[in-house]
Amino acid sequence: MSKYDVSDFDADELNHAIDDTNFPNSHHISESVTSANNIINDENEGSRRHTASSMPMPVKRNGHISKSFSDDVFDVPGTPKTPRSIPTPGNWHEKCAFHHDLELDHRPSTREDLISDMANSYRMLLSSLGENPNRQGLLKTPERAAKAMLYFTKGYDQSLEEALNGAIFDEDHDEMVMVKDIEMFSMCEHHLVPFYGKVSIGYIPCKKILGLSKLARIVEIFSRRLQVQERLTKQIAVAVTQAVQPSGVAVIIEGVHMCMVMRGVSKTQSKTVTSTMLGVFRDDPKTREEFLNLARSK
């Protein structure tokens, strides 16, 4: 199965990456990647080949330039990677988020290595607010807050391959599979405050089914990041697509955003609903209606 990463895509590129050519299989992507590899191998052996093996390659598909990784990466469209989840390939330090020293490697060995620096940042924040970070009630708050933020964003350190853990099974079933009301907690990337809600996922299998709990795990991977609900909805749909390459995927998220509830317009009863319909769910109104009726039913 073709494996690709479009974590750096903008909105238009992401829309093209999840068009209906992904269904029921990803042979279009596979052919594009193979073609790009052949071109790179024919041109400038050596340095170009090294670059292609360590950095995303542009792939022209349906008239648009997209990006791809080699087949040893099992990934789906995601938010930009953090330094703790990307090692430094060779001397690629141009976008280092920690420093600009080419002599050093910027990747911490473990998540715990980040706690000290993050705690110092929280301590500075408390001081900026006019608080005394050394008083009894706040003495350990910076470290607690650092650990909490790492937990809230633990999805950056999780991969789809690890979450699925081989729970993909051959099954001759071609009717809708749906898991609804999956609890979701995430962090708004605009204000760093929570949003939460429920996710409903449906897909039409194409000779393969996914362990039911894995749908909840996919939600957990992408919600435990700095997010916007619109992107989160698409990421879940693409992840299910890559996992079992079904005939179609539908995802609906209903969320409550604290950035609207406890600040700004302060609308406490408002909810945000987003959806992504791919494959037969986009093309067939009856299939889409069936999913929506099931999602709304109690």
Topology, element by element:
Blueprint: H1 11-17, H2 27-42, H3 47-54, E1 57-61, E2 64-68, H4 115-128, H5 141-152, H6 160-164, E3 168-170, E4 177-188, E5 194-204, E6 208-210, H7 212-223, E7 226-227, H8 229-244, E8 248-257, H9 258-261, E9 272-279, H10 280-283, H11 285-296
Parallel strand pairs: 4-7
Antiparallel strand pairs: 1-2, 3-6, 4-5, 5-8, 8-9
Brief account:
The protein has helices at residues 11-17, 27-42, 47-54, 115-128, 141-152, 160-164, 212-223, 229-244, 258-261, 280-283, 285-296; strands at residues 57-61, 64-68, 168-170, 177-188, 194-204, 208-210, 226-227, 248-257, 272-279.
Describe what you observe in this structure:
The strands form three sheets. A five-stranded mixed β-sheet has the order 7-4-5-8-9, with helices on both faces. The N terminus is likely disordered. Helix 4 packs across helix 5 and helix 7 runs antiparallel to helix 8. The protein has eleven helices and nine strands. The chain is an alpha+beta fold and about 300 residues long.
